[in-house]
Design brief:
Radius of gyration: 22 Å
Structural class: mainly alpha
Distance between the termini: 75 Å
Number of strands: 0
Order of helices and strands: H
């Protein structure tokens, strides 16, 4: 019975690890997107400052 519980726990831990990996990839994409937006805003500010 103990082994069944340990297998279940291992399965859940593996699932959580997969979820964390997915979240890290998605957060990286969000951070990259925010970086692009920030660059575009800075560029627009520079263009406006030159006018």
């Amino acid at each position: 019975m103990l082994l069944e519980h340990l297998r279940h726990i291992r399965g859940r831990v593996n699932q959580i690890a997969d979820d964390v990996t997915d979240l890290k990839l998605r957060m990286t994409s969000v951070e990259q997107g925010m970086g692009l937006i920030n660059r575009e805003i800075r560029f627009a500010d520079e263009v406006d400052a030159r006018r």
